[in-house]
Structure formats: C-alpha cells, structure tokens
Design brief:
Elements lengths: L2 E5 L4 H13 L4 E6 L15 E4 L7 H4 L7 E4 L11 H19 L6 E6 L21 H19 L5 E6 L1 E3 L12 H10 L5 E3 L5 E2 L1 E3 H10 L8 E4 L5 E2 H12 L6 E3 L15 H7 L7 H17 L1
Parallel strand pairs: 1-2, 1-4, 2-3, 4-5, 5-6, 6-11, 7-10, 8-13
Antiparallel strand pairs: 9-12
Helix pairs in contact: 1-6, 3-4, 5-7, 7-9
The structure holds nicotinamide-adenine-dinucleotide.
The site of nicotinamide-adenine-dinucleotide (NAD) has 30 residues, from α1, β2, α3, β5 and β7.
Length: about 300
C-alpha cells in the first residue's frame, strides 16, 4: 500500500482507520479529505499524512489529484446525525459526494470501500442478512440506500472494478466524543455513569442492538479490500445486546451499581432491534470480531479513563 485516500478521516471510524493504516503501512502516503462538519482535528493526533479540508461533493478531484493515483479509497465521509431531517442536505451531500468520487475513480478503477449502514434495514424483526430488503425510516438511511444503488450501477458499468459497501451496525469506541448526541449509546451512558448519575435509557431497556467495537470495524474495513468482487457486507458483532445489558456491562467495568432511569422513547423511526448476520464477511473477508460486548466495553472504559486522567 503506497497511497491511500480516506474521506471522513477526521471522524470517529475514519480517524481510527487512518491511524491503523499508518501503523500497518508506515511508508504509505495517506490523504484525508474532511470538511470537519462533524469530525475533529484532535482525532488525528499523531497523523503524518495530508489533510484536505473540503466537502467531497465540491472538491475538484481530477484537478486536485492530477499527478497521482491511489491504491485504495475508503469513503466514510457522510452526515452521520440520523436526527438531521433536512432531506436536501442529507441526500445532496451524502449522495453527491459518492457520485463525484465514483465518477473520478472510474478513470483508474481504484478499489473503493464505502460506508453504508444497518440503518438501511429499518424496522426489521429478525437477524438482518445482506439480502434483507431496504426499508429506510429516515432520510439518513435513505441516503445510504442511494449509495448502495449507485455502487450497484457503477459495478454494472464497470464489472472489473471493485466497489465494496460495508453496512456498519452500532459502532462504539475511542475517538467518538465529537459526535455529541450522535455518539454511541455506550459512550453516552459511560459519561453519565462515570459522573455518578443513573443511566437514562428508553423504557423498558429491552431494545436490542448489534454493538460492534471500532477496532473490529477497522479490521473489517481493511479486509474489505480482499473481497472477491463488488459486494455489500454486514459489519456487526453478530450478536445483539439489550440496553439493560449495556448498563450492566458498564456497571461492571466501572465498579458501580447504578440502576437505569427509564424514559419514553421520543423517536418514532427508532430501530428497536438490529442484529447482523455476518456469515458472508466471515467467509469472504475472514472477518472475525475479536471483541464481544464485555471485552469491548472493558477495553473502551480503560481508554476513556486514561483519556480523562491525562
Ligand atoms: N458510527 C456508527 O455507528 C455508524 C453506523 C453505520 C454507518 N456509519 C457510517 O460510517 C461512516 C463514518 O461514521 P462515523 O461514526 O465515523 O461518523 P463521524 O461523523 O465521526 O464521521 C464522518 C466524517 O465525515 C465528515 N464529512 C461529512 N460529510 C462530509 C462531506 N460531504 N465531505 C467531507 N467530509 C464530510 C465529517 O466531518 C466527519 O469527520 C459514515 O459514513 C457513517 O454514515 C457509522
């Protein structure tokens, strides 16, 4: 790997990916494109590559990168606040960024790995496979369905070109604090509980989600380059956990005994159940999540406590 482009590299998953790329390929030239609408420069502490501050949709990619090519492109830039219901902004910025990128990358057919989302499945009742129909419940999810549609279209036009979509489930881990109310439930509950407050969760805490640790997500994202063809893969932990279980896990890691403080869920479009079938990623990408919920929470709480004391 000599040169890599990462869009959204100042964000949560993007920054973890960039730092791991740098670690694995110390001599590679890594270029981040991010307009910092939700990302934060502090996520990139220790980064030795280039950073272009721009909206991907507005960057003149062929001019900017006239002299060089990349070995791989990871496209993670996106509005990530699912409660942003501005339809024009979500669809225009998320979809046009991807369209511009694919138009430009089609020239060299550089392998592209892009972030889709479990949100595309909407309110499914059972384990989600990649074949489960899309049922977007908000405009963020709709924009991700459009990314999957575009990827399929470009693949049809260029069958030899590898464009791999990853439907991330609920990702948690280091470098997500900048996301505020859009950060993971695990981070938000940690903050409340570490301050000695009762964790506030939706009544009755039995909603279940597939929580996946960012270190596993980064490993899967890099492994996606090994995909045998253009495909979409679920990237979760392969198990769901209830919000009550998260509270129990945090109590264990923090040595506290705080009881949940339940309140009514105000979101009508909420996904009360997600669980990824990850058999395709296991088989084709050799994806093997190393962090179950307990291990992930412990690793993360250790990191958060070190951050707090530094
Ligand atoms: N975190 C999760 O649980 C999760 C779940 C499913 C999918 N995803 C997807 O993974 C990707 C990364 O998400 P994240 O959790 O790291 O969120 P994030 O908000 O931390 O990262 C997104 C980054 O993209 C940048 N950005 C947004 N729109 C841009 C644009 N048009 N041009 C340039 N930069 C832009 C932001 O400034 C930010 O740095 C996103 O595509 C997101 O939709 C995340």
């Amino acid at each position: 790997m000599r040169s890599v482009l990462v869009t959204g590299g100042a964000g949560f998953i993007g920054a973890n990916l960039v730092l791991e790329l740098q670690n694995r390929y110390p001599d590679a030239w890594i270029v981040v494109v991010d307009d910092f609408r939700s990302g934060h420069f502090s996520n990139l502490e220790g980064f030795r590559g280039d950073c272009i501050a721009s909206n991907v949709a507005e960057l003149r990619l062929s001019e900017r990168f006239r002299d060089g090519t990349f070995d791989a492109i990871f496209h993670l830039a996106s509005i990530t606040d699912t409660t942003d219901h501005d339809q024009l902004r979500q669809v225009r910025d998320n979809v046009e960024s991807f369209r511009m990128l694919l138009n430009w990358a089609s020239r060299d057919q550089t392998p592209v790995v892009y972030a889709s989302s479990a949100a595309t499945y909407g309110k499914a009742q059972s384990v989600m496979t990649e074949a489960t129909d899309a049922s977007p419940q908000n405009v963020y999810a709709f924009s991700k369905v459009q990314l999957d549609n575009l990827a399929r279209y470009y693949h049809q036009q260029h069958p030899a070109w590898k464009i791999v979509g990853l439907r991330y489930f609920n990702v948690y881990g280091p470098r997500e604090a900048h996301k505020g109310h859009a950060s993971s439930m695990i981070f938000q509950l940690f903050q409340q509980m570490a301050a000695g407050k009762r964790p506030r969760i939706f009544t009755d805490g039995e909603q279940r989600r597939d929580f996946v640790y960012v270190k596993d997500v980064v490993a899967a994202t890099l492994a996606a380059l090994m995909a045998p063809d253009s495909r979409i893969y679920n990237i979760g932990s392969g198990a769901s956990a209830s919000f009550n279980q998260i509270v129990a896990g945090l109590n264990k890691a923090l040595g506290t005994q705080l009881e949940p403080d339940y309140f009514e869920n105000p979101y009508p479009f909420y996904q009360n159940f997600t669980e990824a079938d990850i058999s395709l990623a296991r088989k084709e990408l050799e994806y093997q999540p190393a962090f179950d919920l307990d291990r992930g929470i412990h690793d993360y709480v250790d990191w958060l406590q070190k951050e707090r004391s530094s």
